[in-house]
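Issue: copy button drops trailing tokens. Both records pasted manually instead:
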Amino acid sequence: MKVEKSIFREYDLRGIADKELTPEFAFGLGQAFADYLGKEGTAKKVVVGHDNRKTSPALSEKLMAGLQASGVEVTFLGEVPTPVFYLANHKYSFPAGIMVTASHNPPAYNGFKLVVRHK
């Protein structure tokens, strides 16, 4: 799988859905994030949410499959606004979380915001 360097931003990953960010990429991201958590000694429990973009459900489904295939316990919030994701992540003390969203970007885009507690 070829990954475009341009999707990596300072605080998230963003790109054109179904071109730069595919379900296959989301699965691999889930596996890579699980590997990172293991290497950092972070508990393998991740909360996942997504926005209302048409590609978000498929990306979050494959993301969670990649996480679970790597031994991560996933709590799925479903479709939620990003502030609700951050609130749930903090209030329930999840060690890590991923929000599938492209924020303010045009509809053709999507992205992933990754959070690791105390990082």
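Record 2 (pasted manually too):
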Amino acid sequence: MGALVLAILISALLTSCISVPKYTYAEYKKIKAINKVEDSEDIAEDLLADDNGNYDELQSFSSDLNDYYLYIEEFKSIYGKYTSELFTLFDDFDGEKEDINKKNQYADSIIEHEEGWISDLEELVAPDFLDDYHTIFIDYLNKEVLFYKYFLEADLEKANNSAQEADFLHERSFLELEAVEKIFNDRAEKLTLELPF
């Protein structure tokens, strides 16, 4: 009798252990793959939730840096459009010592080119963080134009004042751009990224 009970228990145990599987092996692999994707999405969402500030900062940094490069690319294009001829005109103006009419013609040409440059720059939209640089550079060009206009009017005192103000603004524009680039480097360092400048 004990052997019979033992046989029944073993039979019941074996039947319960060797039941029909819920899924085929192929179905099981698909379910595992889906669960892995869901788990990785959950982990990614958790990381974003935990570190959302850094993610937002990284997105903001990347967007700002892209805006910086787009602006500088357009700025350089405009710069190149005017400076090659302007540099020649500056040399001609400075080098002309005998013929005042020629010197005045060079001054007129410089004014025309610089006013065109200003007009093109005024159409260029600067990102907020480059707005000061953009404004200072345009102010610098306006002072340059004033210098040549006062020269043509033979008002040397005003011409000299405009030249000094132009030099100051030109230097200030460089300092402003360096300050913007330093801010980018500081932000990159904080995000443990390679410094862009």
